[in-house]
Design brief:
Low-confidence stretches: 3-15
Strand order of the largest sheet: 1-4-5-8
Distance between the termini: 30 Å
Number of helices: 10
Structural class: alpha+beta
Number of strands: 8
Helix content: 40-55%
Shape: globular
Largest sheet: 4 strands, mixed
Radius of gyration: 20 Å
């Protein structure tokens, strides 16, 4: 189980200490940017901190953890390195997805323990899947796949044809059976190593596949984290690293202002407004995480979580943008932590899961539908 500020860990679970991971992430952040992939030591530290096992079912040795400590932990790491926080959050999230595999598939993925690192490229469906004896054959390319260089497994998705028509099907593939192609040349999140993977005739047995619609249905007798529909928590988990990036940017910018000989004329306004946005974003994500962990699951609760997570992401992006533009020439230096935060925040906020328009449409539909209930 993870810990971090300011949310609490689940009762009865001993939290892991993030001190080692934060120090390692801070030390290796520049190296990750230069190499466009996390250092092996950083990945080992995030594994020790419990991210890959966070949502793994307890019967397979995992924590089956709550969302609040994951959000707090990813945000805490994000203050030091966006790429580390992104991969850590996604290794956790992908472990949650893999828990929806049939029992034989779950046991195969975690045969060596709950710390297996799982990368994914599941939205949108890509590549080609054709039925083969006992399963499907995969051919083609999938991108992006964050952290794939350090993964043990990868989840890939393609369109398949089933009894009910076209299906969005997810396949669990050993990392050793795919080829990684170096295509991740970006302005932000450089250290995530979100490269392309290729398959050529990889056969995946039926017990290592599921259709994406199962993520909308609770698993009987499962822990709470496996009964929450995917739309309720997807944006939440993607927004958590961005909150950390914004907090780190504010800290770096404040340190620069404190050391400056002459204060920027708008320092008081930028500092006040940016810190307020970031504080509000933290409150929104804390509330959404608590709702995911405790609240009754209704269409309105799902829509509220999407609303709050995407609003938090927007607030963080706006805050970092303001800090960057108030940094002057200092932020134009390639070694500026504010510039790095600005590039990372811009890339993070552009993720499709954090699209505020899509979240707004879903929220309006839930509120205005006859069974939507009262808005929060």
């Amino acid at each position: 189980m993870l810990t971090g500020e300011p949310t609490r860990a689940a009762a009865g679970v001993v939290p892991h200490d993030l001190t080692d991971l934060k120090e390692t992430a801070r030390r290796d952040a520049v190296l990750a940017e230069e190499r466009r992939v996390l250092a092996a030591g950083t990945v080992a530290a995030l594994t020790r901190a419990g991210f890959p096992r966070h949502f793994v079912p307890r019967q397979l040795g995992g924590a089956a953890g709550e969302f609040a400590p994951l959000v707090a932990g990813a945000a805490a790491v994000g203050e030091e390195c966006a790429a580390t926080a992104w991969c850590a959050a996604l290794f956790a999230a992908h472990g949650r997805l893999a828990a929806y595999l049939p029992p034989e598939g779950r046991h195969e993925v975690w045969a060596d323990g709950p710390d297996a690192r799982i990368a994914a490229a599941v939205v949108p469906p890509q590549g080609e899947a054709t039925q083969a004896d006992g399963g499907w054959r995969l051919d083609g390319a999938w991108r992006p796949a964050s952290g794939v260089d350090h993964a043990d497994w990868i989840l890939l998705a393609s369109w398949t044809h089933g009894a009910r028509g076209r299906e969005h099907r997810v396949f669990a593939v050993p990392r050793s059976q795919v080829t990684v192609v170096d295509t991740w040349h970006t302005s932000g999140l450089r250290g995530t190593g979100s490269n392309t993977v290729r398959c050529a005739g990889v056969v995946v047995p039926r017990h290592r596949t599921f259709t994406l619609d199962v993520l909308l249905r609770p698993q009987p007798g499962a822990a709470r984290c496996h009964t929450v529909p995917y739309p309720m928590v997807a944006a939440l988990m993607f927004a958590a690293p961005l909150l950390g990036v914004a907090r780190g940017a504010l800290r770096a910018w404040t340190d620069e202002r404190t050391a400056a000989e002459r204060p920027h004329p708008a320092t008081h306004t930028v500092l006040s407004q940016a810190s307020a946005r970031i504080h509000a974003a933290g409150l929104l994500l804390d509330g959404a995480a608590g709702r995911a962990d405790r609240a009754e699951i209704t269409p309105l609760a799902v829509a509220e979580n999407r609303r709050d997570a995407t609003a938090a992401a927007t607030l963080c992006r706006e805050a970092v943008d303001a800090l960057f533009h108030a940094s002057g020439l200092r932020a134009q230096s390639p070694d500026s932590p504010v510039q790095r935060a600005w590039r990372d925040a811009t890339a993070l906020a552009a993720h499709a899961a954090l699209d505020p328009d899509a979240a707004a449409r879903a929220y309006a539909e839930a509120v205005l539908s006859p069974t939507g209930g009262d808005a929060a």
